[in-house]
Amino acid sequence: MRHIPEERQPDATLTRPLLRDDMKFAAVKIAGFQWVIVGVFLFLISGFWDLQIRNEEVYNEKAQANQIKSLPIPAPRGKILDRDGRVIVDNHASFRLILSRENLQEDHLGPIAQGLNLDPAELLAKVKRFQKRPTYFTISLKEELTPAELTFVEAHRGQDAFPELELIKSQYRIYPGGGLGGHLLGYVGEINDTELNSAEWAAYNPGDVIGKTGIERYYNELLKGVDGQRRVRVDNRMNTREVLGVKEAVPGQDLRLTIDLDLQVVAELAMEGKRGAVVALAPQTGEVLALVSTPSFDPNHFVGRIDTREWNQLQSDPGRPLFNRALQAQLAPGSTFKPIMLLAALEEGIIDDSFTVSCGGGATFYGRYFRCHKRGGHGRVDLTRAMAQSCDVFFYTIGNRLGIDRIAKYSEMAGLGQKTGIDLPQEKEGLVPSSTWKIRRLREKWYAGETISVAIGQGALTVTPLQLAHAIGGIATGGVWMQPHLVKSDTPAPARRAELSLENVNKVLYSMYAVVNEGGTGGSARVAGLEISGKTGTAQRASDALVKSGKLGSDYHDDAWFVGFAPRQTPEIVVAALFENGEHGNLAGPIVRDVIKAYFDKKKSQGDAGGARLARRLPAEPGP
Amino acid sequence: MATYRRIRDLDWPLILLAIVITALGVLQIYSATLDTIHQASWWKQLVWLAVGLMGMWLMARIDYHNLLGQVPVLYAVALGFLVLTPIMGTLIWGSRRWIPLPFGFGFQPSEFVKLVIILVVARYLSELKSDRLELRDLVKLAMLVGIPFLLVASQPDLGTSLTYLPVLAVGIYLGGLRWQHAAAISVLAAALLPLGWFALADYQKARLEVFVDPAKDPQGRGYQVIQSKIAVGAGGIWGKGVTRGSQTQLRFLPVTHTDFLISAFAEEHGFFGVVVLFGLYFLLLMQIVQNAQSAPDRAGMLICMGVCAILLFHLLVNAGMAVGRMPVTGIPMPLMSYGGSSMISVFMMLGLVNNVRLRRFVS
Fold first, then answer.
1. What is the set of domains in chain A, with CATH numbers?
2. Interface pTM (ipTM) of the complex?
3. Which of A64, A534, A618, B362 is the most exposed place for a label (fewest CB within 10 A)?
4. Are B298 and A45 inside 8 Å of each other by CB?
């Protein structure tokens, strides 16, 4: 109680406890405690030293990784327009969810997959696929998110949840016509492993959206553009605070097709419910006006990611909706081959106007009886009647005289047995048999008897609908075969020319006019006021005996063909139609008729302006 | 005359150090809360500083012997508040620590209980006749501190309740702990530690697990530690500059203006700034120790050392957490972290130290 100041003392005496004032005992202990303080400070300072001096670089990098993000700017894919500039394939603005790999943590993949209804194993595989790419490559997770998925993303976007999730603006491919022109346009989708490992797509990266078929694939390089990139500083909620650098995306080029949407629609309607293909060409330029294959598919279902069940269904469908019959169906052309036969016979001087054949319903060649499609026979026919009535005996006879190699020569001249070079992927070449082909392929000699079947478009001979339209179009223009193409171009398409006698060509063309207009087999294609010429074809898929036995299904019914063009002089349009299992060529006639009629109806309604525009494109009249 | 002497005789170096550290804190709060909803915190902190200085003046004026005389009353009031807190308290982050006051302020009794604990320990030990503590003394002391400890721990606020223990520890160390007892306590603690694990809540267990291995839960519990270490490390020697730290400004660093203010400071001022700051803290603590050494009696010495122990514990746990050397707790950095209750209670503790200093002069 020594040092209590006097003035503070009185009232406290009662409550103030006895206080000991011997301080010295504590002096050493206080000194000891000072060392504890020093120890604590050294412990803390060494902690800061360790982070700030020894490992500054490490943590600086982590701080950078926290805040700097590279975000792709997807290039909008070029639109696809028809010849009149109408949009056939478009994009619409959408959000794409991407996985940034700069701060990816593998243990987040499970919950992310769960929240977004993705297959975790597939997601993991996707991430693995990127392992060798630089980390600024992002992984595209999903496009067109559902509201539930968007909520999931918004709730988990921050630094303390899944900082690797990122939403970016993108363009989503849309096919407003649905299935319209599906085979022609193709569809886009994410590049798959097989494609990545192929030479064609070597320059692409996982996650890239590419054209898988059709125009989308053929012109992928033009359409896709070049993706850009943004480097941004973000905060912990992944909000952009500062843009550090932008490489703008280069949009893909728009493509203007030669397709006329109106004709395409007419052709598709004509094919409704049928299995087959229609190809309409402008023979003077090679422009494809319409290209249809049925049954078709809706390209919209493929964009992004097609659901496995739907894919399997499309794959296993007996109608093969993914198969583009217009350029991939290789079938016997049947009687539609006869104009080429006739031209060959005239050009080779085997027959002339006065040549006739008497048809009694069949004839024997090399010890075998070949029937004409008309049991009772056509009687005596000249070349025009033979074509108009499609008399098989007449063509057996000239085929026999020509021999297989001369038939092959003229078939190849017309473009059969080879790709037309159309700007679509996976075109097939068909087959033109010849003696060298047989030796090379089957190591067997050609038997003259085999020529007889080929003469009426059967046997080993196969063509695609595109080839047929192309071949007949070339003959109709007097021996100029313009390469079929789908994209409008200012430079004329490559052409193949043959020195043909205009007189012979006109005889063939007149006989084809007779098919439609003078009581021939193609009367179903006739339209008053339009000079449509053409040829029917009924191609066997199996021998008569087998079909009659009833053991075969409807898949083996005869294919119906029709190829027609108009007008007779300087034709503007040639159309080939294949109606699989259609039984008779006569039934394919109306399909061609509808398309040709639509073409001229439209031309008439547009006045001369449209015609003049087309005429500017026409090459010089082929000389005799 | 008397008033004049009091003002002159206050521990001005101590007060100045405290104000400088607070000013650095205000600056850092300003930088860390720029463009956030906590923008106004820096000037509020200045208000708390003013209130704190008044509290300090108050605690320096009343003779600490009078305070020691009122310990039973103070202790009872403290326990009363702690019992009321869970009943009246506002629920924030799953615990009730604050009693609401008008104008949206909150009062955190557990912060002020620190002062009472210091006085309780000082009084009990200064009343002893011997320089050696008996077992019953230890048990009594442990119970005196243990009751408020358990009340605060059950709010739950284990962090704050733990800050009472250094006062007890320093007290029994200075009061004369026998080495046999020390050994016994160590063995007992080691034995009870596994049991304590089961007493912890899940989030507390998670914090401890993450302390051992932050990578275990990098986005959840470990997130704070990882981001804090990044902030500190990225500061380097000289720091990124005020308002220039990316971890702080882009909000990667959590609760920047309170628990992790030191990390923000380290990012923006670098190792150099940290050393200067710790130098100031060191001088502050040494000034308190000096006051303990020159205290007029044993009680005054115990009060000063109690204050010193509490502040040292705060520093150790808060700064240690920022560099990943301590588990994550909500213990603030004294004088720096934003918060009224903490600010005022620290200045009141410094007031106690000044109180002791003022009584050393024989009139």
1. 69-103+123-256 (3.90.1310.10), 261-617 (3.40.710.10)
2. 0.94
3. B362
4. no
